[in-house]
Amino acid sequence: MSILKFFILFSVFAGLAVILPYGLEYYFSVSVLSDQFLLIAFFLFFLTIIVYVISYLGIKKGGQNSVLSVLGGLTVKIIFSLAMILLLFLKTTENQKVLAGNFFYIYFLFTLFEVICLLRILRDRNKM
Q: CA torsion 41→42→46→49, rounded to 10°?
């Protein structure tokens, strides 16, 4: 999967993942979103794209670099994500359980999508 194809598919996926909680709030009148939900979503969206590009280039380079680039990218992603959520925890006084739930919802969905796309690249590479 090329970088452009990933960007297009990931943009659609991210859009659906962000719209779904708003639909839940609208139709069921439950409060499931924090004020920083869109900030978390945009930050993790761009971070996921950066990490995917780094991992993609490492896989295309081949050898030991492919493993290091994937693991290094995921490590950098978790470190920056946890630093951002820590800053939001310290900054906000709203319901922090909702904030944590929003973070983990977006983080795990975006990471799942990224890993599935990277595994598709590795599967295609092993068939050659």
A: 40
Single-letter code of the amino acid located at 92: T
Cβ neighbours for 109, distance < 8 A, ≥ 6 positions apart: 13, 17
C-alpha–C-alpha distance, residues 14 and 4, integer Å:
15
CB 123: neighbour CB atoms within 10 A?
9
Q: Where are the domains of the chain?
A: 3-127
Q: Which residue has the higher pLDDT, 40 or 122?
A: 40
| Cβ-contact 102, 37 below 8 angstroms | yes
| C-alpha dist (Å) from residue 59 to 20, 23, 29, 94 | 33, 38, 45, 42
State the alpha helices, DSSP H only, in the chain: 3-28, 37-61, 64-91, 96-127
What digits encode the pLDDT tens for the residues 37-76?
A: 999 999 999 999 999 999 999 888 877 778 888 889 999 9
